[in-house]
Amino acid sequence: MESLKHRTAFSGFAVKDLDAARKFYADTLGLDVKEDAMHHLNLQINNGQTMVLIYPKPDHQPAVFTVLNFTVENIDETVDALTAKGVKFQQYGPPIQTDAKGIVRGGKPLVAWFTDPSGNIISVLQM
Fold first, then answer.
1. DSSP H/E element including 110
2. pTM of the predicted protein model
3. For the chain, which terminal residue's Cβ has fewer other Cβ atoms within 10 angstroms, N or C?
């Protein structure tokens, strides 16, 4: 078997509504979103060095865990900018405690979670 150690890889997840996902990831998050020949969405992240596949699944049920993480330089600025675009950050209580903005500040990394229109959990992290 060919070793996978040095091969390119990408991740993917499902959404219920591809049009809502396209609008959210492109317009709200400001990502480059391309549609492939199979009508799946490809998020082009880090100048195209990273790709995330988004595919439609009509009976989609969101995972109960984070499916996509973005590292950011300044979590407060990022949370404020996304909040201004209508993103609602999750509020969690003990044992994970978020502040009023939805940021966990109890150590490193600083992290805040939000969901896409299909309920998939996404985070921003400041290392």
1. strand 110-115
2. 0.91
3. N
